[in-house]
C-alpha cells in the first residue's frame, strides 16, 4: 500500500493529509488540526485487528503515553473513540527513524552520545512513573529535525505499568523485537527497568557499530546469542568508556547492569561534554591551516581532566588510547552522509571502567552495605545497600560474599516492593551463584535459604539453613530462617525456640522481635506480641516496622484510638503503603468506610501497595460497604486474585494463601472457582498455626456464596482450633449470619462481639 492510499476523511477537527506508514498493530496518518493550526500524527488500529481486545490495548497505550511528559518521548494529545475505531492523536515528529540512520553504518560519536543521552533521559522519566517500555529499538526512535536534532521515543504499545501491574499485552506472551530483548524477557520472566537498559545497550551498540550485536540468521540463533554469547567487539574507534558502558548495559544478569537510566544519562552527558572540550581544542589547532592536516597518531597518558581521584599510575598508563583527529571529523555534524561515505570516528582517552577497589576499600564498602541493609526500614537505605553490593559484584565477579549480600538485598526488595517476581528470579539466581562461588560461606547458604523460603520450597531452604548452621553454629540468621519454616509448617513451639535463639545470639536486632511478635499475634497471644513489638521500638525508635506492628496488635485488641496515634507517628517517620493500609483498617472497623477506602487508595498509590493483593482486597471490602461503590468491588477483588495466584502457584500447600484466594474469588463473583479453592483448602492437612484463621476465611467465603451450612461448619471448626470466637463479631460480611440462632449456639448463647479480626492488618 502506498503512503497516500486509503486516507480517511475528516475526524472531528482533524483533516487527514497522507498515510505515513503501518506497524504490527496500527496505521499512522499525518493530519492537520484546524483548531490549533498544527500538523499531528494520528494512529488507529489496522482494520483487520479492530476487535475489542485490540481496541482496549490502543486505549491503554494512549493513557500510558499521555502520562509521560518528556522532550524525548513523543507526546499524546488526544484519544478519539468512534463506532468505527479508536484513534490516538500524537505529536508529529518530522525526521528519520534511528533505524534508517544505523542501516547506513556507524553514527558519528557525537550523535551516539547526544541521542543516547536523550533516549536515556526519556527512559528515566518513564521509569520514574513506573513504566517499562519492553520494546525499545531503533525503529521506535525518530530523530526530529526541527531546530537541533533530537531523539523521540515512540510506541509505548508494549509498555508495562509497574505501579498497577497492568500490561498492554497478554502477560503470558513474550513480546517485543527479539534482537533487542533482554535475556530475562526472552525467557518469559517478569521484566523491570533493567530490561529496558539491556535494549538501550543494543540500541547504543547499533549506533556505534552500524550493526546489531546479537542478530542471527534465524530467531533461534538470535535467542541463543542473547542468552549465551557476549556481544562482538565494537569498532576500534569507539572510546574505551563508551565501550565499557555498552558492555555493562549488555550484561546477561540484570543486577550487573547500571543502576538506572538516570545514571546512564548522567554518564553519557559527561562523556558528551568531555568530547566537546576536545573537539574545541582540535578546531582551534587547525582553524588557521590552509589545508587539512595530516592524520597524526599519538600515544599519550590521559590528561588530568580524565583521571579519577586515587587512580594508580599503572592503571592510568593502561588506559592510554590512540587519538585520531581527522580535520572536520570532530566538528559537530548532524547531517547523515550517503551510504558510501565512511563515517569518521574518534578514540578518546576515557577510562576503560570504574576504578578497581583495593581490598581495604572493598571491605569497608561491604560493611557499609550490610549496615544499610540491616536498617532497610529507613529511607534510602535499601537502595544504598543494593547499589553498594552491585558495585562490589562489579568490582570482583568472583566474590561470594558480595553476591550473598546482593541476593539478600534483592530478597528484601521482594518483600518491600510488593512481591514482584522479578526480584525473586534475580535473588534466586544471585544466591545460587554465591553458593557456587563458595559453598562454605554461611552468608551464601543463608541468602539462598531465605530466597527458597520465598519461592515456596521449604525443604530445600531448610537444607541450606542447616548447612549454614553447621558451618557457623552461632549464625542468628540461620535460626531465624529455620523458625520461619517451622512457623509455616505449624510447629509453633520449635519456631518460638528458634526465634528466641536468634534473639539470644543477636539481641540488638529489632527484626527478630518483630517476627516473634508476629508468631504470637497469629496465635492469638496479643499481650506477648505487644511486648515484642514494644521491644522492637526500643531498639529502633526511628524505624516504622515496630510501630506498624504495634498498631496492628492494638487494632486486633480493639484499641483503635491508640492504634491511630501509633500509625500517625509512623507515617510521620516515613509514609508507606502498609501504614496507610492499616490506617484504612482502623477506619474500616469503626464503620468509616469512605475514609477506609480513601486510605486504601493512598496505599495503592505506592508501587509496593499496588503489587500487594491484600491492599486490593481491603479496598474491595471497603467498597462493598458503600452502596454506590459496591459495583466496583468485584474488579478490586479480581485484581487481588491476579496478584495472589502467582504466590499460590509458588507455594500450593500454603492454606493461608489458598483460603485468602477462595475469599477473593467469592467476593469477585467467581463462585465456581471459589468453591474449588474452598474444597482444596478444607481437604488439606497442612494448615498449621494459621489453620484457625484459614478456616475463618473459608467461613466468610461460604457466607458470601450463600452457603450458610458450610459457613457455620467452618466457624465451628475454627473456634475449636483456637480461633477467638469474638473476632467474628466485627466482620461485616457475617452480619446476617450472626442473626442465625445456630451461630448463637456456637457461642454458647452469647451475643458475639469483641475485637476486630486481624485479617486486614499488615505486619512483619
The rounded Rg comes to 30 Å
Number of strands: 12
Mean pLDDT: 79
Class from secondary-structure proportions = alpha+beta
Strand content: 5-15%
Helix content class: 40-55%
**Unreliable stretches covering 5 or more consecutive residues:** 157-176, 279-353, 686-690, 749-759
Shape, principal axes of CA atoms: globular
Count of helical regions: 32
Spatial gap, N to C terminus? 60 Å
Strand order within the widest sheet? 1-2-3-5-4
User: Quick one: biggest sheet?
Assistant: 5 strands, antiparallel
Name the descriptors.
764 residues, alpha+beta, five-stranded antiparallel beta sheet, three-stranded antiparallel beta sheet, 32 helices, 53% helix, globular
Question: Please, could you describe this protein's structure?
Answer:
The protein is an alpha+beta fold and 764 residues long. Helix content is 53%, strand content 8%. Helix 20 (545-556) runs antiparallel to helix 21. The protein is globular and about 85 Å long.
